[in-house]
Design brief:
4-stranded antiparallel β-sheet, mainly beta, single chain, 28 strands
């Protein structure tokens, strides 16, 4: 009987000790920011996918952010490579966890991986009721808001898909190292369209009107004939690895890694460096770009920056954006 009481006391003490230890940890006020890999805009909400922090949401044009995507509310991994949205849902593409969907602005996330045979997701595009997902091994299509997926690779041969855009009735896929592929039948067949493209490691795509732009490891390329031919547009670019391209009206922006943000008002014929340390960017390694109204957002190594003057100056947007990729500690006094 005494032995049983001693065991019971030890168990209670152990539980109490565990509770006390857990209760001593609180989220610190920083360090802030981190690697931002992707954006999605849904109405007045801006979603950002991060490296290790999951998904963050801003409802005030980037002034403040809150975490709305973590393991605690449904994600199996917090390394989010791609964000996308339809009218009724927001999607997060992860590194190894596949695709997650939220219909309540990130309060909860549901894994939607039925039929998805590759779970490293880099890109989304929406065309009507069709959602396309680009992965490490080709492209998948959902016609039921992500509930199930089917491979639509055709001649892609399991390419590493980095980016997707829709232009009219065409869907374009950026691949590395395969260049650009075009489908005019919702992914049933794909044709490689790389004539004039001297670097086929495509990292990003953007479209505005008849202008289709590809950011590659060898600079920026422009097509004005639906991908039939491409022309290099690198005059003025000091760096050639264009990880992100985006249009704000007719103005083209290119995010370089490293090298900051460049701006062109003539479809890339000439470029001006606008995203620099002097202009407000502490880190100039750019992963992704997004345009919301007249505001340009840059997702960098080191957080999120925004510009409201066409890239002339940048401010950091980190309130509420806490990094979770902590590698080491140091002690100095208390």
């Amino acid at each position: 009987m005494k032995h049983d009481l001693r065991v019971l006391c030890l168990c209670v003490m152990s539980l109490a000790s565990t509770y006390v230890l857990q209760s001593q940890w609180l989220q610190a006020n920083g360090p802030f920011s981190g690697d931002i890999y992707s954006f999605a805009v849904s109405g007045s909400n801006i979603f950002a996918g991060s490296n290790g922090g999951g998904v963050f949401l801003s409802a005030d044009n980037g002034a403040t952010w809150k975490n709305v995507g973590s393991v605690a509310n449904g994600l199996s991994t917090t390394l989010v490579l791609a964000m996308g949205n339809t009218g009724s849902a927001v999607f997060a593409g992860t590194d190894g966890g596949g695709i997650f969907r939220t219909t309540d602005n990130g309060v909860s996330w549901l894994a939607v991986n039925v039929g998805l045979t590759n779970t490293v997701v880099h890109a989304f595009a929406v065309s009507g009721g069709n959602i396309f997902a680009g992965t490490n091994a080709g492209i998948f299509l959902s016609t039921n808001n992500g509930s199930s997926w089917s491979a639509v690779n055709g001649s892609l041969m399991n390419q590493h898909i980095t980016s997707l855009v829709v232009s009219g009735t065409s869907i374009f896929a950026g691949a590395s190292p395969g260049g650009v592929y075009q489908s005019t039948n919702n992914g049933a067949t794909w044709n490689q369209v790389i004539s004039g493209m001297t670097n086929t490691n495509v990292l990003s795509l953007a479209v505005s009107g008849s202008s289709l732009v590809a950011g590659t490891e060898g600079g920026v390329f422009l097509s004005t004939n639906n991908g039939a031919t491409w022309t290099a547009k690198n005059a003025g670019l000091a760096d050639t690895s264009a990880h992100a391209v985006a249009f704000s009206g007719t103005t083209l922006f290119a995010g370089m890694y490293p090298g900051g943000v460049y701006r062109s008002a003539d479809n890339g014929t000439s470029w001006t460096l606008v995203g620099t340390v002097a202009a407000g960017m502490a880190h100039t390694n750019v992963h992704t770009l997004a345009v919301v109204g007249s505001t340009i957002f840059s997702g960098n190594y080191g957080g999120i920056y925004s510009s409201v003057d066409n890239g002339a100056s940048w401010s950091t947007n980190v309130t509420g954006l806490c990094a979770s990729d902590v590698r080491a500690f140091a002690i100095l006094g208390s």
